[in-house]
Each structure stands twice: as structure tokens, then as C-alpha cells.
Amino acid sequence: MPPFPLNLFKKTKILVVEDDNALRKVLCDKLAMEGFKVMEARDGQEGFKMAIMKHPDLILLDLMLPEMDGISALEELRKDSWGAAAKVLIMTNLKKGESLGAQTEKYKVAGFIEKADTSIDDIVMKIKEVL
């Protein structure tokens, strides 16, 4: 084991794509306090463009978004050479049913968070597990 963390000189970048301003702010603030470099987008189109330009280490993606919904943004992301392997964690108020499960499996997401049933601390723990 190295004597210092491997990411000491490089902060892990997380892109939060969430249209709820209050939730996005709380998540971004908490992640920044945890030592992550945080980027944010308010809709799927902005999130997709930012992901392609900035290459975050993880994308926290809501599904119900204006401009471009999360599944459409994920579909476009997977068409890109970098985006094909990007780590994406879905975050939504939708229940993970058969249809949604099939879609998220198709696009190889790293995990699924039901916002209504999960605390901010639990979201951070899930992010750390995925990374």
C-alpha cells in the first residue's frame, strides 16, 4: 500500500445532472466537502455536453430532466468513444421496475439510487462504492 492516497494530486471529478435546484446544490456542496471536484448541469442536454467535454470520473444522472431526459442523454453518451465506458450512477424518484431495469442494464450503469428512499449520506456512500 502506498504511503499516500493515489489520488492526492488529482481530485475525482463528479458531474451531477439534476434539475431540482435545491437537491443539486445540497449534493454538490456535500460532495465538495467530501473532497470531490464537482461539476453540475441542470438538464440532460447540458449534462451530456459537459460529460463529453470534461470527462468526469462519475456521472450522477437524474432520469426526469428537461431538454433531454436522462435515458436519452445516456444513450447519446454511450455512442461516444469515451462515453461508452463512462461510469454512470442513475438517481431518480422512479421505482426500478422491469422496464427501467432493462433500460439501465442495456446502457451498463454502475448503479441505481431511488432519491425518495435515500439520504444524502447514503448517496455519498454509494458514490464511493462505485468509484
Keywords:
131 residues, alpha/beta, Rossmann fold, 5-stranded parallel beta sheet, 5 helices, 5 strands, 41% helix
Determine the CATH topology: Rossmann fold
Helical segment tally?
Answer: 5
How would you name the CATH homologous superfamily? Response regulator
Strand line-up of the largest beta sheet: 2-1-3-4-5
Q: Architecture in CATH?
A: 3-Layer(aba) Sandwich
* Termini Cα gap: 18 Å
Q: How many strands appear in the DSSP assignment? A: 5
Shape: globular
Low-confidence stretches: none
Taken in chain order, the helices and strands follow as EHEHEHEHEH
Radius of gyration: 14 Å
Measured by DSSP, the beta-strand proportion falls in 15-25%
For the record, the count of structural domains works out to 1
- Biggest beta-sheet profile: 5 strands, parallel
Average per-residue pLDDT, rounded, comes to 87
Helix content: 40-55%
CATH class: Alpha Beta
Structural class: alpha/beta
Please provide a written account of the structure.
- The protein has 131 residues and is of the alpha/beta class.
- The protein has a single domain, classed as Response regulator (Rossmann fold, 3-Layer(aba) Sandwich).
- It is 41% helix and 18% strand.
- The protein has five helices and five strands; from the N terminus they run βαβαβαβαβα.
- A five-stranded parallel beta sheet has the order 2-1-3-4-5.
- Helix 4 links the parallel strand 4 and strand 5.
- 27% of the residues are buried.
